[in-house]
Amino acid sequence: TALGGGISSLLIMLEGPGEMIVLCSEGEPSALEIYSPGASGPKGSGDSKDQLYCQVALTSDSTLFIDDPSTFPGLEENEDYVKFGYGYYIGTPWRQASPPYLTGTVAVMEKVQGKLRKEHVVTVELFRDLFEQDVSSVELG
Asked: Whose CA, among 61, 106, 119, 121, lies 20 to 30 Å from 1?
């Protein structure tokens, strides 16, 4: 794949009231047990320490790239990292251009350091662009 193959988890997430919901996922069986379509996780408080990665990407309205969680301030209590071990992340917000104007993220998560690199950001953003084109032509809400 364009991401080098063998990634742990590729997700398309939907922002819901107070939670993030998995729309679709692909990856290793252990990741699919956690991040199966329809699964959800509560958003963290305003304190960035407990916010989900996708929540941080949506709030900042920009692509989030984490290649070393130990040096990334403010996400020490992130559930994906603390509970499941996914410390390496690329996620970028998507927006539906027509009603109901849904939002979410396209994201890749990994447990192994070095598998996600800066050059993968462009690939994730291109995938997001394609998804945004498609999501504007279907009803999700």
From this structure: 61
DSSP 31: H
In three-state secondary structure terms, 137 is: coil
Query: Which H/E stretch holds residue 10?
Result: strand 9-16
Nearest to 124 by CA among 78, 62, 69, 68: 62
pTM for the predicted model, two decimal places: 0.87
Q: Which two tokens stand for residue 79?
A: 């559930």
Task: For tokens 């996400």, name the residue.
Answer: 75
Task: For residue 73, say if its preceding peptide bond is cis, omega within 30 degrees of 0.
Answer: no
Alpha-carbon distances, residue 138 vs 20, 33, 44, 131, 133 (angstroms): 20, 27, 29, 11, 10
Q: Which amino acid is at 1?
A: T
For residue 44, how many other CB atoms are within 10 A of its CB? 17
8 Å CB contact between 77 and 49? yes
